[in-house]
Amino acid sequence: MCAYVIVYRDGRWLNSAAGSPAAGPEPELADSRGITLKREGSCKGTPQGLPAPGHLKEVTLLKGLWHPGIIQAANVTLDPETAHPELILSEDWKSVRRGKKRQDLPDNPKRFDTRMCVLGRESFSSGRHYWEVEVGEKTGWGLGVCKDSVSRKRGLTPSSINGYWVLLLKTGGKYWACTSPWSQLHLRKRPQAVGIFLDYEAGTVSFYNADNKSHLFSFTDTFTEKLWPYFNPCLRYGDKCAGALKIQPVSDWE
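RESULT FIELD:
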């Protein structure tokens, strides 16, 4: 059985193979405003059940999406003033790992002193932004975004209700979305790199396996503050977790 692909572009759903309007009722656009989306399915009969844009777990970004006005590949770097004192940043501020001891760094209101994390230097308060982080064989990490007002001096549990929209890999190979309560994810393939896609106006933070572009999870919320890219290299559980998280150039979706 062959496959069809339904694409949303320029305010309408198309059959991407022919570029013609797709059969079936047009869904309510909801969170997909302006985003090109796809969903594969059977060619048998008339394509029905177009993806409901509010349910982004069923949707993946279309390959070859990087043209002006749709999504910006964000040039994310790390902010050393926010880094926990045990974290070591590279000179280009593109990677972070946990060191073996606490560094003597000046305290400031921006610095996390309990949670083992660092934020990006650039915040987002509008638009669509995408970046990728190499995680390699690390056995623990946390990636996503957090709101500007999260406490930097208390170790609150990361969750969407506390202003963290984060995906975690914990000891034992278990993946978690930091919903409230946390949701365990069962991934078919272990990602070596993770893509994070923020659509501020739509209120979504989506995660992708950057190796094969498969969708992992999406949060849906209402954002009212600046959001910061979030990086947590986690505790040093042996050599595999001691490696760095590395912000990598955005790969082509072709």
